[in-house]
Design goal:
The protein has 238 residues and is of the alpha/beta class. The protein has helices at 15-23, 69-88, 98-106, 180-197, 202-231, and strands at residues 2-7, 27-32, 56-59, 93-96, 110-122, 125-126, 137-146, 152-156, 161-166, 169-172. It has a single domain, classed as 3-Layer(aba) Sandwich (Rossmann fold).
């Protein structure tokens, strides 16, 4: 079995999410969309694999917006079409943050800037704690989705919808893959300044993340298990 992680930038490791897929028998493969040298000019072309090449697809986070067609349209629009077609083939999709927003747009919802962002460890309101526990989960986003017509929202926060399912697709707004090493990488590429602009202390956020990483990894493992056991085997909803 093969799982494809679509990494939209060079600082988005899949961390415990990839670890759990591998422990469940998957071979993890990676597609990096925007290389490090193109980070400041991210409108690069994309070469996507043939449809049906993978058993699961995991589109991940991004510092850009799902609504920014002019800025990243060279790869954003083909990826949206490819993910829509992948979903229609009944291939399970596990969308994380930007990846979840991609699925919202691909399935007929919309995405745009939120009134305010969310950064840091927060609890969410889940409709089913056995499906998605309340957390805390790590948040880092400034956009939010409106639900696709056939989607079922399963978790939310006071600021944004946090998770939905549609057939064999699960979309998450939060970052279950986030552990200390990933946050340090984000800080090196402008993230520290965003945290400061949000009125937070980066060193304290990093210390909280170091303390939370082991428990967060366990939550991530459990989330992958639920996805594979319940969502990936569900009836398709196109």
């Amino acid at each position: 079995m093969r799982v494809l992680f679509i990494q939209h930038d060079h600082v988005s490791p899949a961390g415990p999410i990839a670890e759990r897929f591998e422990s469940r028998g998957f071979t993890a493969e990676y597609l990096q969309v925007v290389p490090a040298e193109s980070f400041t000019s991210p409108n690069v072309p994309i070469e996507l694999p043939p449809l049906g090449s993978y058993d699961v697809v995991v589109p991940m986070g991004s510092p850009w917006g799902v609504w920014e067609d002019e800025r990243i349209g060279n790869w954003l629009l083909p990826e949206l079409d490819w993910l829509r077609a992948t979903h229609q083939l009944g291939i399970p999709i596990f969308g994380i943050c930007f990846g979840g927003q991609l699925m919202a747009r691909a399935l007929g919802g919309s995405v745009g800037p939120a009134p305010s962002g969310e950064i840091g460890w927060t609890s969410i309101l889940s409709d089913d704690e056995n499906l998605i526990p309340s957390g805390p989960w790590f948040q880092w986003h400034f956009d939010r989705w409106s639900l696709p017509p056939k989607a079922k929202e399963i978790a939310r926060s006071p600021k944004a919808s946090q998770a939905f399912i549609q057939g064999r697709t699960m979309a998450l707004q939060f970052h279950p893959e986030l552990v200390e090493v990933a946050l340090k990488a984000w800080f090196l590429d402008g993230g520290e300044e965003q945290v400061i602009a949000d009125g937070q202390d980066p060193e304290i956020l990093l210390a909280m993340t170091a303390r939370e990483s082991a428990a967060a990894a366990k939550r991530a493992y459990a989330l992958v298990d639920v996805f594979l056991d319940q969502i990936a085997t569900a009836e398709p909803v196109l």
